[in-house]
Design goal:
54% of the residues lie in helices and 9% in strands. By secondary structure, the protein is mainly α. The protein has helices at residues 38-61, 65-75, 83-90, 94-106, 128-149, 154-170; strands at 30-31, 36-37, 81-82, 110-114, 122-126. It has a domain at 38-144: Arc Repressor Mutant, subunit A. It is built from six helices and five strands. α1 crosses α5 (128-149), α2 packs across α5 and α3 (83-90) packs across α4. The termini are far apart. The protein is globular.
Length: 176
């Protein structure tokens, strides 16, 4: 029989129960359905939509999400990458990144070349087949974005882009 988890009540907006608690009115800008701050709820909902779209792109291209992320990470830069650099870009351990790279190389989507400067380092680049997959993924992403933006006027689209850039820049923990 499963363990029951007791839900803790959310303090009323006018009570500050912890040191550093924002206090009165802090929960005023929340999504009533989730009790999360509104912006966090919206970002999570957008993330979920993007993840569903990414899964669909992966299904259409016969790639895993990690393989797609690897193709995108490598092609978005203008030089060859080491396994270590790809792992760092993707936020994966080097061993997990190596498995993703092995899979892409076995499928003929990625070319490995030994670095002249360090024989222990492999440099990675997309093959013509890998570029074809990258272009197909990019096309599907553009189509998705165009469907979303079609609901906005050109002015609203520009405003939304500027607001998202501003929020991303201001978001705590963002290092980009």
């Amino acid at each position: 029989m499963g363990k029951t988890i007791k839900k803790m009540p959310i303090p009323a907006p006018d009570t500050a129960s912890e040191p550093g608690d924002p206090g009165p009115g802090a929960l005023a800008n929340t999504d009533a359905a989730s009790s999360l701050p509104l912006l966090v709820s919206l970002v999570r909902a957008m993330r979920d939509c993007c993840q569903r779209q990414e899964k669909e792109i992966c299904r259409k291209l016969s790639l895993t999400p990690s393989e797609l992320a690897c193709l995108l990470a490598i092609q978005e830069r203008d030089h060859k990458f080491s396994v270590h650099e790809v792992a760092k870009l993707m936020g994966l351990s080097q061993s997990r990144a190596s498995r993703v790279i092995d899979s892409l190389a076995c499928d003929g989507l990625l070319h490995r070349q030994t670095a002249d400067s360090d024989r222990r380092t492999q440099l990675l680049a997309l093959t013509p087949a890998g570029l074809k997959k990258w272009y197909a993924a990019r096309k599907l992403m553009i189509e998705c974005e165009q469907k979303v933006l079609a609901s906005l006027t050109p002015q609203k689209s520009r405003e939304m882009e500027e607001l998202l850039k501003t929020l991303l820049k201001a978001w705590p923990g963002n290092n980009s």
